[in-house]
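Hi W., the zinc ion complex you wanted:
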Amino acid sequence: MMLIAIPGWLKKLFAGWIWQMPVTKNTVFLTFDDGPTPEVTPMVLAFLYKYQGKATFFCTGKKAEKQAGILQEIIKNGHQLGNHGYHHLDGFNLKARKHFENMMHGKRITGSSLYRPPYGHLWPWQSTLLKKESKIVMWTIMSYDFDNTLAPDECLHNITQHIKPGSIIVFHDTEKAWPTLSIVLPKLLEWLSLNEYCTDIIPG
Ligand SMILES: [Zn+2]
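Structure:
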């Protein structure tokens, strides 16, 4: 099942996690998970630069520690770094302590207090410990850019029909997502500017 927009009851049930941002303007929050990827992330940065977009990059510590140059580019361009754990582990299968340690390992490398659990998988009893060290950042809209059976125009439409001020949108700066992302990202950035939306980073 594709769950594009997170339902309101879920956001209310887990109100201690960030599902959308409070805004007074037409601002949305682009996020990129699972990078940095040398073949993809620099091109994402180039698109963002071209359209004056801002974004938050939820990097895994394991990839980030090998890509210091890309991390610097992300910061230099005014974007934000987020932590996606050291390994991309499934929180549903982890003990609370192990989930915390994987988060902390990623935090030491990315230097970020914004944590997005891989797959968004997190038990409420793990979250108590994690929240002592990080803000838990989930999302409003999942792009499914990694799903190669989804046509890019469909992917774009799924996003634009659900977008609201404060929406947090998930993309992936990975080679798997790039065939779709490379088409959808510039089109979305154009759509946003036509519809008088701006983009911003999630504050740390
Ligand atoms: Zn991920």
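The mean pLDDT is 96.

W.
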